[in-house]
Amino acid sequence: MLKIALCDDETVYLETTEKLLREWSRTASIPMELDCFDHGDALLAKHRISRYDIIFLDIVMPLLSGMDTAKELRLLDKSVKIIFLTSSPEFALSSYSVRALDYLIKPLSYDKMQQVLEECMALLYKEPDSLTLKTPGGYRRIYLHDIEYLEAQNKRVLFYLSNSECLEVLQPLHTFERELPDSKGFFKCHRSYLVNLKNVQHFSSVELSTKSGRQIPIARGYGKPFQDTYFTLMFQDQ
Length: 238
Hints:
This protein has helices at 11-28, 40-49, 66-76, 92-95, 110-124, 174-177, 223-236, and strands spanning 2-7, 32-37, 54-58, 81-86, 102-105, 130-135, 138-143, 147-153, 156-161, 166-169, 186-190, 193-196, 200-203, 207-210, 215-217. By secondary structure, it is an alpha/beta fold. It has two domains: 2-124, 3-Layer(aba) Sandwich (Rossmann fold), CATH 3.40.50.2300; 130-236, CATH 2.40.50.1020. Helix 2 packs parallel to helix 3. This is Stage 0 sporulation protein A homolog.
């Protein structure tokens, strides 16, 4: 099920865009869950609970503008596809600062919206990087973006996933260091821990917290290399 949010404070445009999206869903035979909002705060609150795949967002709104809403969204979610709605092309340049996929001039045309949605679908269903693990219960394929960190315990490794699941693998940690290098967003912050930087919520020089709230130590002398690698990765994602 494709999850889409639409946020526009002007009722006429909100209703028109909603009709176009539902028409596209029927024509393309793609099941869609669509939520409509008339201000950014409500959208942000819902996205924190239930992540959207695609967000159509009006740029000019009272109180919390569309651009400010997009900045908050990017703090929560690096991958959600943001498509700005605007009555003027003057905002096109600023849309790049929050990595918006596109911007559509209102009133929307069905053809242009269809084109943007097809591009979104191609990006959403591109097969992400994965890893196949041999666990006590059999072979298991996991996506790299679902890994929060790996923890070495004697001759086994525990994979902690973002859904709170933990998988046990009877291999030493060093066998995964080659498969999960810095170039794929992983960093060995301690002799017993290999962390997915994209799932780090915040950190100090001695400790980090993952998005699920798990606490992981950063070994002495690793604070500066960790920080440098983290910000290099985040800059690449901009």
